[in-house]
Write a structure and sequence with these properties.
The protein is mainly beta. It has a single domain, classed as Glucose Oxidase, domain 1, CATH 3.50.30. The chain is globular and about 45 Å long. It has a 9-stranded mixed beta barrel with strand order 1-4-5-13-8-9-10-12-7. Helix content is 13%, strand content 32%. 53% of the residues are buried. This is PA domain-containing protein.
Length: 213
């Protein structure tokens, strides 16, 4: 199985099948650096800043961990060496399920869309985000019954194709991100995507303590 990793700083806080926690194979990372940073790669991406609505920045370190993502199985562009973005906002879409054009389209355009699972297919969410101008999509299921699973995002045979990368973030991590942004009154986190940690041993990754790794 292919996976991506994410690194995060600060507190962040149905058409697919559940997968058990995967082995470390073909991994990438994304990171979040303080409440001002988000990094990650599963492809990976790094993060730098959480943005406050009053345009001020803070740099808490509650989310300075490495997170893993699982890329969509059979749709979307690959997270590879040709896809590399730095210091870009990870923006939760509104409405949160991303099944219609976002009300916060201006925030999503040119950035990475963060979408909750539910109400429409993963591919439909990705198509809508791409049309809104998103450069990549991260989807997470924050429902407590699914928060500790990776979910395989599969093609639903929609006629349109997805031309941007799409990946799944474990629900517990997604929930922490959303809670943290809400608590800090921030609209987005800044990330770098991807970050190549392929040859980094698992025990050297700074992973979130709430996952019990």
């Amino acid at each position: 199985m292919d996976y991506i990793y994410l690194h995060q700083l600060g507190e962040y806080e149905k058409n697919a099948k559940l997968s058990p926690f995967p082995n470390y194979t073909n991994v990438k990372y994304f990171f979040v650096r303080s409440f001002d940073t988000l990094w990650g790669q599963y492809s990976s991406f790094n993060g730098r800043h959480f943005h406050r609505r009053n345009n001020k920045r803070r740099h808490p370190t509650e989310l300075e961990y490495t997170y893993r993502l699982r890329p969509a199985k059979d749709f979307g562009a690959p997270f590879n060496e040709s896809f590399h973005i730095k210091n870009i906002p990870l923006v939760p879409v509104h409405p949160k399920y991303g099944c219609k054009p976002p009300d916060n389209l201006d925030d999503v355009e040119g950035n990475v869309a963060f979408i909750e699972r539910g109400q429409c297919s993963f591919k439909t969410k990705s198509i809508i985000a791409e049309k809104a101008g998103a450069r990549a999509v991260i989807i997470s299921d924050v429902d407590h019954s699914n928060e500790e699973y990776f979910i395989e995002m599969i093609d639903d045979n929609a006629s349109e194709e997805v031309n941007i990368p799409a990946a799944y973030l474990m629900g517990k991590n997604g929930l922490m991100i959303l809670r943290t942004l809400e608590r800090l009154n921030r609209n987005y986190a800044i990330i770098n995507l991807p970050v190549n940690l392929t040859f980094t041993p698992a025990h050297k990754l700074n992973q979130p303590p709430w996952l019990g790794w």
